[in-house]
Structures are given as C-alpha cells and as structure tokens.
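User: For my dataset I need records formatted as: sequence, then structure tokens, nothing else. Please produce one.
Assistant:
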Amino acid sequence: MSKLLTLTLNGRERVDAVADNVLLLDYLREVVGLTGTKTCCDGGECGACTVLADDEPVLACLCLANACAGRRIETVEALGESGRLAPIQQGFHEKLGAQCGFCTPGLIMAAEGLLRRNPRPNEDEIRAALSSNICRCTGYVKIIEAVQWAAGLGAAEKPS
C-alpha cells in the first residue's frame, strides 16, 4: 500500500506516493535520484547512508521513508552554496579526509550533524559522533583532522 509522503528534502517540499515498505535510502536514490547517499551494508553497520533528519544523523538504510513524513531531510547534495563547498566538505578536501570516497558522504553528514549540535567538538566527541561510520581506506586521523578544521580548530589555515 502507498501513502502520500510529504517532507522537506534539501530545503524543498516534496510530495510523493511511496509504498509503506520503501526505505528512506531507496526513496532518495530511486525515487528522487539523489545518489550521494550510498548503499553499502543495508544493515546499519557502516554509516555510508547517513543523512540528516531535523539536523540529526539517521541511517537511511534502517529508516522507512514514510517515517520521515513532516520532517526535514538533508543529504550531502544539500551542502554548499552557489558552487562553494560547505566548511565540512572543505575540511575533507584540505585535510585529505577522503580516500576512495565511498564512505565520504556518510561521514560528512555525520560530522555536519555533530557540528550543528556542537560547533567546537573535541577529538573524543568527534570520534563518538563518527563511531557508526566505517572507512576501510583510512586510519581516521585525516577524517578527524577534517572535522577539526571545519570546526574552526584549524582557523589559521582557513582562507580568508
């Protein structure tokens, strides 16, 4: 059975007929065409599908799309303005926080959620916020440095 799903996606209201069993991940990728949210483990183990729901990180592979009715959902495609990278994206670029890039959108969205809640997190807070995201290519040092940079802890390195 389908229901009309009304939500705000990346700043725009959407209304779509969505079957009750459709995951948020599949809705974003297959119905809307936003492929930045990655399909990986399909079991909530890797974090590649992390999006923000009302500014809080959510694993889209574990969430039914219709459970997001009335909520504000943001994907990695929502970050940045006028072709400019958002601070967290810039941090991943400047500090080489991305390797193969597959996990990067989920890490960026988890980090963005953290920075919205806590603009100046310490390393332990960053590690805790990213603990549900797996990166197979790095030792996480560059990822943590990227979040610190975005948080302004590397403010001297930021371009003016």
